[in-house]
Structure formats: structure tokens, C-alpha cells
Design brief:
The complex is a heterodimer. Chain A is mostly beta strands. Helices cover 0% and strands 50% of the residues of chain A. In chain A, strands 2, 4, 5, 6, 9, 10 and 11 form a seven-stranded mixed β-sheet that branches. Chain A has a four-stranded antiparallel β-sheet with strand order 1-3-8-7, with no helix packed on it. In chain A, a hairpin with a 5-residue loop joins strand 4 and strand 5. The relative contact order of chain A is 0.34. Chain B is mostly beta strands. In chain B, the strands form three sheets. In chain B, strands 2, 5, 6, 10, 11 and 12 form a six-stranded mixed β-sheet that branches. In chain B, strands 3-9-8-7 form a four-stranded antiparallel β-sheet, with no helix packed on it. The radius of gyration of chain B is 13 Å and the shape is globular. The termini of chain B are far apart. Classes of the chains: A mainly beta, B mainly beta. The interface between A and B is medium-sized, with 25 and 20 residues.
Chain lengths: 113, 112
Amino acid sequence: EPEVTQTPSHQVTQMGQEVILRCVPISNHLYFYWYRQILGQKVEFLVSFYNNEISEKSEIFDDQFSVERPDGSNFTLKIRSTKLEDSAMYFCASSGSANYGYTFGSGTRLTVV
Amino acid sequence: GDSVTQMEGPVTLSEEAFLTINCTYTATGYPSLFWYVQYPGEGLQLLLKATKADDKGSNKGFEATYRKETTSFHLEKGSVQVSDSAVYFCALRLQGAQKLVFGQGTRLTINP
């Protein structure tokens, strides 16, 4: 069964550093998403991406965050100048259409120290 | 705003017990409703869904019925197995929207 692949599975970074979280969505999917889950809290929507642009974003997704689909297969989330409160599990997802269910990756656990 | 509330966990049951995980929602309009499951070390997997009132979603012995009158989508299974141990998330998606709104998740542990 097709999978969404996320790398790395765990990343530790120092406060103030930039991190890039990587995702390979399912190849024929058109819609891409990032969600995060701070430990013990709800899974929260960050951003959706379609046709090479952001289609929706939450208030969490401020100027510190950016997304990119650099080469037609990868989908990346960049966090500039990380803060301690950015520590969370970040999930990538993709779907074939806006009305289909998502396929999620297994997540990247980001720890900011 | 739109939100999903799940019963507090963790929930611990014995094998073959009956399972109910409560989920209620607040939303404008008529959302689609979902249950996702996360097994240890894995991503979120769609377990079942319902797109309109009175629809029943079912998969792997799990069922949930979309109840508009009580704004609920409770997850049930008649006889749980150890392999059902996971975290279960209830979620909604508004009509025309792309994003999912999740509940806080309920950790289920089934003992042999």
C-alpha cells in the first residue's frame, strides 16, 4: 500500500537554529498537509498546499514557518529560528483530492533544546 | 469555533470486552466525521468515516454512527483484541474545507 514517508523520525536541534522536516507524499496525490502534536495536546492543523501554493493555513503557521515542494516529489516544512515551544511531533499528509481521506506519515519528533 | 471533544483516557480493558469511546463535536454546517487510529511508532491511519447524518462508518469490527441530534460520533467495538491497543482520534472536516479538526486522542490498552 502506498505510504507517506517522513524523515528524520527524530530530530534534536538547538534553540534558534533552522530545521527542515522532509516528507515524500504518495506519488499521484495533489494535496499536501502539515500537522503537529505537542506532547499531551491535540493534533493541530498547520498548513495545506495545492498547485504549488498554500491553500489554507492556521494562525500557528506564522512567518517562522514555510513550506516548499522543491522537486515534485518532496514536500518540506522549514522552521526558522526554532523555539522551545516548537518541540512536537510533526505529521505530513497527502490526499488525492480535497474530499478524499488523508494518508498520514509516521511523523517527525522535533525536540528543541 | 469548530471543535471535537473525546472522552478522557487512558482506557484499559480486558480482551473481548465491549468498547465505547465517546466523541462529540461542535461545528457550523454539516461536517464529515472521522476516526483515526495511531498504533505505536506509526502514523495516523483512517479507521472509518461518515459524511452525513445517520451514516454508519465501519471497519475492522469498529463502528460509529453520525448522530446530528446529539452531535456525536461514538466509536464502538463488540469484542476488542490486544492488537486494538492504540491511540484513537476523532476528527471532523467542514464541508468545502480541507483541514481536519482533531480531538485530543484516547489511548486504549487491551490486556490479555
